[in-house]
Write a structure and sequence with these properties.
heterodimer, A: Rossmann fold, Alpha-Beta Plaits, 2 domains, 4-stranded antiparallel β-sheet, about 30% strand, B: about 400 residues, alpha/beta, D-Maltodextrin-Binding Protein, domain 2, 4-stranded mixed β-sheet, transmembrane (chain B), ABC2_TM (chain B)
Chain lengths: ~290, ~400
């Protein structure tokens, strides 16, 4: 498990990261969200060791992380970085070797990754001749080439078309082993929602929420959508003491149950009007996020 | 957590990348080929110019005078060891004249009633004329002496003017001066060219952000060493090639005397070159890591450029005394000391001081350089001043 504890970073007088602690659990995808300037990139750079923390620690299985363990992390920085004038395969082999692989193993692995990303026929091309989307795929391959023990990826999907995102996601799912912690930041909340098991939310340098996505959802009262028929006004549900009506428009209302089970609530509603629909609302991540950072 | 057995050290992987990238770079290949062609051209033109003045063809009538011309060749070679006279035997004086007119021979020696006649087209080379005149005079003198029954040896006793040169290399001082200048120029050009390319490659890594991945994967110090070693090997390879072509050129064009005089200096030059280059390489890397964009390099490489330009002008312009002193300073020594050694004897202690000073400078520069490099490599968003870089914490 990869953990950060009380991570703080101060630039001159500005505190960009303030006492952040969270865990990145193995075998699970942890989504890292927050507005621009919330401190996501700073956190990730401290984890991989290219930036020093002013205070706090990064630990691997409970012990402070060392250089050798950091070398086993696959890192994809926010500002993509590869050698523009180097051939794709040479580049991946170079990074593989820097991470301790021998040339033959690195080349075999690079071919395999390029093949799965649909880029094998471009292996001999100079990187800058590839489209931006393809360069990004190579970037992912560079982060994965040494079969890392953990993955830290800053906005790995930004700038990709939906099909490229799909192929990248399926590659990631193949690569993530049950022992492997994966942390990735993203602005695309729907994507995080589909992909992530855990969530870490930062706002202005502080941690506002972290944990399993399901738990975060469950932390708030479950909501139900009620649709009435027969010309009934959903606004009348405000008179039901067991319900809290969050929103009502025409025949439709969004309610939380204050008292009793959903079955009981439905019974009560059916006592006042004819019900066309009574359904649990799965709150989108965007909403959890907005509420958390509010 | 699986631990990997690292077969190749990081600095070697980085050095290999520097090496292979550069050696495939068309600009680099072009520049190297151009330098070598320039050098070869220099020798070709040189030997062409000199070859005309020292190798002669002379026509003689019948075989009788062949010995005379051979004697003249001996005289000629006393002055220019590489000179030669080739004898062309013809049937009569008219044929000899025809050859001269056609330009097939430089001159013809024809014996008439009043003695020998030297026939030339519009001019006869002074060296050739002196050699033939001496040979004829000696030959005829011997004949006359025999006819008059005179003891020629007794007559010639004490007439020779022996020549003793106080500076026996003086006749080559021009050529040796050129060699010394070439030493300084080649180091200046190579160190500047490679220096700028080291700085550029560091800045490029910063600009393309690849440095972020590199720094996450390996120690920054290993990156620096890889860069320094890779580029030093390349520069060394280039300079060894240039020196070899130069020495072979001297050998092929028959300047053996000059060659034997400067071979040691050339070998020392290679040693000085490596040390001087090594000392500077770290500084160039820092220049690269202080910059955030290629445009910043103009100002951040200024100290490196000055360290090369000032000694270069000193080596070209300064007086002997100044040169003697500064030739012991680090980096300056690479440009001046081998040149001094090519031009004459240099006391061994001066060479030792120069080597030790450059070694010490290399150690200091690499140490300070790697500290500055580590501190500044990951900082982006503007040029960093040297002064600020010293104050930064990691």
């Amino acid at each position: 498990m990869l953990s950060v504890r009380d991570l703080t970073r101060v630039y001159d007088t500005t505190t960009v990261l303030d006492g952040v602690s969270f865990d990145v659990r193995p075998g699970r995808m942890t989504g890292f969200v927050g507005a621009n300037g919330a401190g996501k990139t700073t956190t990730m750079r401290i984890i991989v060791g290219v930036l020093a923390a002013t205070r706090g620690s990064v630990t691997w299985d409970g012990a402070p992380i060392g250089a050798e363990q950091r070398r086993r992390i696959g890192y994809m920085p926010e500002e993509r970085g590869l050698y523009p004038k180097m051939k794709v395969l040479d580049q991946l082999v170079f990074f593989g070797r820097l991470h301790g692989m021998d040339t033959a193993a690195a080349a075999a692995r690079a071919h395999d990754l390029l093949d799965r990303l649909g880029l094998d026929e471009r292996a001999g091309d100079v990187l800058e001749t590839l489209s931006l989307g393809n360069q990004q795929r190579v970037q992912i391959a560079a982060a994965l080439v040494h079969s890392p023990d953990a993955l830290v990826m800053d906005e790995p999907f930004s700038g990709l078309d939906p099909i490229a995102v799909d192929s990248m996601v399926s590659l990631l799912r193949d690569e993530v082993s049950p022992q492997m912690p994966v942390l990735f930041s993203s602005h695309q909340l729907e994507l995080v929602e589909n992909l992530c098991d855990d969530l870490v939310i930062l706002s202005r340098g502080r941690l506002v929420a972290s944990g399993a996505v399901d738990d975060l959802r469950g932390r708030h009262a479950v909501r139900y959508r009620v649709v009435l028929t027969g010309g009934a006004d959903a606004g009348t549900l405000r008179d039901v003491p067991q319900l809290s009506v969050l929103d009502a428009q025409g025949a439709e209302a969004l309610v939380e149950i204050i008292d009793g089970t959903p079955e009981k609530a439905l019974e009560i509603i059916q006592g006042t009007a004819q019900v066309a629909e009574f359904a649990r609302v799965v709150r989108p991540l965007a909403q959890i996020y907005r509420e958390a950072v509010r | 957590m699986s631990s990997s057995t690292r077969s190749t050290p990081v600095w070697r992987i980085v050095a290999e990348r520097e090496f292979t990238t550069k050696i495939r770079d068309k600009t680099f290949i072009g520049a190297t080929i151009f330098t070598l062609l320039f050098l070869v051209g220099f020798f070709v033109i040189g030997s062409f110019v000199e070859g005309r003045s020292d190798d002669f063809d002379v026509a003689v009538v019948g075989s009788a005078d062949t010995a005379l011309v051979e004697q003249a060749e001996t005289v000629l070679q006393a002055d220019s060891p590489d000179g030669s006279i080739t004898v062309e035997e013809v049937d009569d004086a008219d044929a000899a004249e025809a050859l001269v007119r056609a330009g097939d021979v430089d001159a013809a020696v024809v014996s008439g009633e009043d003695g020998y006649e030297l026939v030339g087209d519009d001019d006869v080379d002074t060296g050739l004329r002196v050699a033939l005149t001496t040979a004829v005079a000696q030959d005829v003198l011997e004949e006359n002496a025999a006819a008059q029954d005179v003891d020629l040896e007794a007559l010639n006793e004490g007439t020779t003017l022996a020549v003793r040169l106080l500076d026996e290399n003086a006749d080559q001082s021009g050529a040796r001066g050129v060699v010394a200048f070439a030493f300084a120029l080649v180091f200046f050009m190579t160190a500047l060219g490679f220096g700028m390319s080291i700085a550029q490659s560091v800045t490029q890594e910063k600009e393309s952000r690849v440095v972020e991945i590199l720094a996450a994967a390996v120690p920054i110090r290993a990156l620096l060493w890889g860069k320094i070693i890779g580029n030093t090997l390349l520069a060394l390879g280039q300079v060894v090639l240039i020196v070899l072509v130069g020495l072979v050129g001297l050998a092929v064009t028959g300047r053996r005397e000059l060659l034997s005089g400067i071979t040691w200096a050339a070998l020392w030059y290679v040693a000085f070159f490596v040390l001087g280059f090594l000392a500077l390489a770290a500084l160039w890397s820092v220049a690269g890591s202080l910059a955030s964009r290629q445009e910043d390099l103009q100002s951040t490489t200024m100290p490196g450029q000055l360290i090369l330009i000032i000694p270069y002008f000193v080596s070209v312009m300064a007086s002997d005394k100044v040169q003697t002193v500064v030739s012991m300073l680090p980096i300056v020594s690479t440009m001046i000391m081998p040149g001094r050694m090519a031009q004459g004897d240099v006391p061994w202690w001066q060479v030792a001081v120069a080597i030790l000073a450059t070694l010490a400078a290399a150690v200091v520069f690499v140490r300070v350089g790697s500290r500055l490099y580590e501190r500044t490599l990951l900082r982006t968003g503007g040029r960093i001043r040297y002064r600020d870089a010293f104050r930064l914490s990691a």
